[in-house]
Design goal:
By secondary structure, this protein is α/β, with parallel strands linked by helices. The chain folds into 3 domains: 39 residues; 72 residues, Ubiquitin-like (UB roll) (Roll); 134 residues, Rossmann fold. It is 31% helix and 23% strand. The chain contains 6 helices and 14 strands. The strands form 3 sheets. Strands 8-7-6-9-10-11-12-13-14 form a 9-stranded mixed β-sheet, with no helix packed on it. The protein has a 3-stranded mixed β-sheet with strand order 2-5-4, covered by helices on one side. It has a two-stranded antiparallel sheet with strand order 1-3.
């Protein structure tokens, strides 16, 4: 009796294992088929341009950003890697930061692009080489001249001009720009063409700074003390103001025009 009971128990266990294997196989096939159907479902695919929504500050156009993204449609949502898309956009000089978010049901990709804001215009004597044209942002990154029409349209065209710009000056630019924008005296241009004789164009005329820009904050303080100079000397007589030593400013005057004798 014990032998027959053991055989019956073993048969029941075999049938249970067989049913379990069949159930697992059916579940695997069903899951695979379901995933395949789900993957091919239109809700997981980006098939229309409006499913990729681009947000910018206005300097970049939607068409330009789509051109940089470089992906074809239709394309499954899971293949649009936020890391890859972010890296592609951040290769562009005008792009400061990027954020990408994917959404399913329905498929959608949101891309936020923060542009670098031009704060100064690069100017030079024609013919100008390409590396001396365009704009600078607050960090000293050079932006191309093709953004000029958009900046005028948005009324964000910089009023500060920079001459003689060179990439080696990028590390100094944030400090220089911060000092200029906080100065009580309006600065219209900075001339960097002669590294030993850096100059500022202000409402008082040309200001000579010398070569040590570490003194720029003190020089601008000294310049502020000279704001009322036109009350004593006409502006047309001021040729330049030398602030290479901010403790001892030098004012260069043009010769006073000769007066014609009055003939009776």
């Amino acid at each position: 009796m014990d032998f027959r009971q053991r055989r019956q128990q073993m048969r029941r266990q075999q049938r249970y294992r067989l049913l379990l294997e069949v159930w697992q196989t059916l579940a695997t096939v069903g899951t695979t088929a379901g995933l395949a159907w789900l993957v091919q479902h239109p809700s997981w695919w980006v098939v229309r341009p409006e499913q990729v929504v681009i947000h910018t500050d206005g300097l970049l156009t939607e068409a330009r950003v789509r051109q940089w993204l470089q992906f074809d449609q239709p394309q499954p949502l899971w293949q649009l890697s936020p890391t890859v898309l972010t890296a592609r956009l951040q290769q562009q000089p005008v792009v400061a930061q990027v954020r990408v978010r994917r959404q399913a049901f329905p498929a959608r990709v949101d891309i936020w692009v923060q542009e670098r804001q031009p704060v100064a215009v690069l100017v030079c004597q024609p013919p100008c080489p390409p590396d001396q044209q365009g704009f600078l942002d607050v960090e000293g990154n050079r932006l191309g001249p093709e953004y000029a029409p958009v900046l005028r349209q948005l009324q964000r065209y910089p009023s500060l001009h920079v001459r003689g710009w060179h990439p080696t000056q990028k590390s100094l630019w944030p400090q220089v720009y911060r000092a200029i924008v906080t100065s009580p005296v309006r600065v219209r241009a900075i001339d960097w063409e002669q590294p030993g004789d850096i100059r500022l164009q202000t409402e008082l005329g040309w200001i000579r700074l010398g070569s040590d820009l570490q003194q720029l904050p003190a020089q601008l303080v000294a310049l502020d003390r000279l704001r009322h100079l036109p009350r004593q000397v006409p502006l047309q007589r001021i040729a330049a103001i030398d602030l290479s030593d901010p403790q001892a400013p030098l004012i260069e005057l043009r010769p006073e025009p000769l007066r014609r004798p009055v003939v009776n």
